UniProtKB/TrEMBL annotation:
<keyword id="KW-0251">Elongation factor</keyword>
<dbReference type="InterPro" id="IPR001816">
    <property type="entry name" value="Transl_elong_EFTs/EF1B"/>
</dbReference>
<dbReference type="InterPro" id="IPR018101">
    <property type="entry name" value="Transl_elong_Ts_CS"/>
</dbReference>
<dbReference type="GO" id="GO:0003746">
    <property type="term" value="F:translation elongation factor activity"/>
</dbReference>
<keyword id="KW-0648">Protein biosynthesis</keyword>
<protein>
    <recommendedName>
        <fullName>Elongation factor Ts</fullName>
    </recommendedName>
</protein>
<keyword id="KW-0963">Cytoplasm</keyword>
<comment type="function">
    <text>Associates with the EF-Tu.GDP complex and induces the exchange of GDP to GTP. It remains bound to the aminoacyl-tRNA.EF-Tu.GTP complex up to the GTP hydrolysis stage on the ribosome.</text>
</comment>
<feature type="region of interest" description="Involved in Mg(2+) ion dislocation from EF-Tu">
    <location>
        <begin position="79"/>
        <end position="82"/>
    </location>
</feature>
<dbReference type="InterPro" id="IPR036402">
    <property type="entry name" value="EF-Ts_dimer_sf"/>
</dbReference>
<dbReference type="Pfam" id="PF00889">
    <property type="entry name" value="EF_TS"/>
</dbReference>
<dbReference type="InterPro" id="IPR014039">
    <property type="entry name" value="Transl_elong_EFTs/EF1B_dimer"/>
</dbReference>
<comment type="similarity">
    <text>Belongs to the EF-Ts family.</text>
</comment>
<feature type="domain" description="Translation elongation factor EFTs/EF1B dimerisation">
    <location>
        <begin position="70"/>
        <end position="270"/>
    </location>
</feature>
<dbReference type="InterPro" id="IPR009060">
    <property type="entry name" value="UBA-like_sf"/>
</dbReference>
<dbReference type="GO" id="GO:0005737">
    <property type="term" value="C:cytoplasm"/>
</dbReference>
């Protein structure tokens, strides 16, 4: 039967479940609110909604390419135990296959990509209910074109997606991917480094450099040299290549008659403020409830 927006709104306010889940529940129970609440509980969706404000800072990062399109994404969970869960890893594979085959460009579009049962967003909600931890697709990037390379670290926590221009071999491109994974450059080139980052680093350098008695031009050269060294540490093209430290990554790529257009490195949980949970207090609170 058709359900009204007002019914969906009422059910959402009671259960905090997703709009589409409320719609399904009402359709399955002929619009009876009390029965719909029971339906949501039986399907674990109220439980999933209650976990929606939990912090998920663990999980899996994954990159994949078919040669003409490349993707990298991160799916988070609350604990690292979930990354060893067979159902969770099956979900990661299904999401990866679906996102690679789709044309999604943004996270919002990725969440609406169809899987075998519902959208990516709905599958994460369902996994939250089944596994018992908050599961969410946190971020997603895609690139289209030629010369795409990816790398996934064995621990499933670091993934890299690179796009080149030129005839660089897959082996050489993969080596650059591994370098990015290992050395974690913040920026592709110095042109991408924000001015506020440079200003902050220069302030730190000045505070920790004794320039007593140095002429102004000499002092300026010392400071600029130290800043240049710092920028070389955080920009990929200026870093010493891990497979041949005699040359920079930029020179290595150039020697292959190629250029690097884009770099994406996802590490699970980066940028998320983790919360240390007092499990004893949590259990006590649940018992009181």
């Amino acid at each position: 039967m058709a359900v009204s927006p007002q019914q969906i709104k009422e059910l959402r306010e009671i259960t905090s479940a997703g709009m589409m889940d409320c719609k399904k529940a009402l359709e399955a129970t002929n619009g009876v609110i009390d029965d719909a609440i029971i339906w949501l509980r039986e399907n674990g969706l109220v439980k999933a909604a209650k976990k929606s404000d939990r912090i998920a800072a663990e999980g899996v990062a994954f990159a994949k390419t078919n040669g003409k399109r490349g993707i990298v994404f991160e799916v988070n969970s609350e604990t690292d135990f979930v990354s060893k869960n067979e159902k969770f890893m099956s979900l990661i594979k299904e999401i990866g296959d679906a996102l690679l085959a789709a044309s999604a460009k943004t996270l919002e579009e990725a969440l609406e990509v169809k899987l075998s049962s519902g959208t990516v967003k709905e599958a994460c909600i369902s996994a939250t209910a089944t596994i018992g931890e908050k599961i969410e697709l946190r971020r997603f990037v895609s690139v289209d074109g030629d010369s795409i390379a990816v790398y996934n670290h064995a621990n499933n926590r670091i993934s890299v997606l690179l796009q080149f221009e030129g005839d660089i071999s897959q082996e050489d491109a993969y080596d650059v991917c591994m370098h990015v994974a290992a050395m974690a450059p913040k920026y592709l080139s110095r042109d991408e480094v924000p001015q506020d980052f440079k200003d902050q680093e220069m302030h730190i350098i000045k505070e920790n450099t004794d320039l007593t008695g140095k002429p102004e031009n000499i002092a300026k050269g010392i400071l600029e040299g130290k800043l240049s060294k710092k920028l070389a540490e955080v920009t990929l093209l200026d870093q010493g290549f891990v497979k041949d430290e005699k040359q920079t990554v930029g020179n290595f790529i150039k020697s292959k008659k190629a250029t690097l257009k884009s770099m994406y490195r996802f590490e699970v949980g980066e940028g998320i403020e983790k919360v240390i949970t007092d499990f004893a207090a949590e259990v006590a609170a649940q018992l009181k409830g």
